[in-house]
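My main concern about presentation is that the manuscript never shows what a single data entry looks like. In essence, backbone conformation is discretised, so a fold becomes a row of integers matching the chain in length. An entry of this sort, consisting of the sequence and the corresponding backbone structure tokens, reads as follows:
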Amino acid sequence: MRRINVIAIVLLCVLTTVGAVAQKKEYIHPNTSKKGWKPLFDSTLSNATYPAGVWSVTDGVLTATKDESIWSQKEYDNFILDLDFKNADGTNSGVIVHASDTKDWIPHSVEIQICDDYSKEWSKADPDWQCASIFGHQPAANKSLKRPGEWNHYTITCKDRMIWVVLNGTLVNTCDMSKFTSAKQNPDGTVPPGWLSNPMATLPLHGHIGLQGQHAGAPIYFKNVKIKEI
């Protein structure tokens, strides 16, 4: 009886480990051609909310002419978001998740930063303002960002209060939102910007997904923006 129990426990551990590895692989290297994956926005942007005339799609590339965000009409909870982005010189943009208020989104969402870390301005910025950071809260590590004019790849997974950010195939940020209980100080002792007035630990998880437009005067380009709910 004991031997059977031991075998059962070992088998359960093996299956659990295999499941965890498979899940992790999906978070890092998802196959977006498989079942469950859908474009976040359709080719005509009919399922998006954005100011008229600002965002457009040309040859599959999505871009904006102003500093106005584009939002999914649908609200999401747990998901994997997979996309390509291309910076210009001085780009400062972002992927916005858990946005419960798209009109006043900055304190009511989480932004995964996109910017040109090679530029004079952003190369000198605080690490949690640079590319692949959880903006204002947690910097990325071990990242390899491509230069302006080259396509980068993001895979962003949001599951409960965890966020995983994969840049060009490398996991560069793992953030536990539940640890960010103060709007005055991050867990590492750094101070978030004053406009991030709601602690991440208190943010609703059911919300819209957005892409920031032409912020700081430099354009940003997106393509192959796909999502899978989990």
In short: The two ends are 38 Å apart (CA to CA). The chain is about 10% helix and 30% strand.
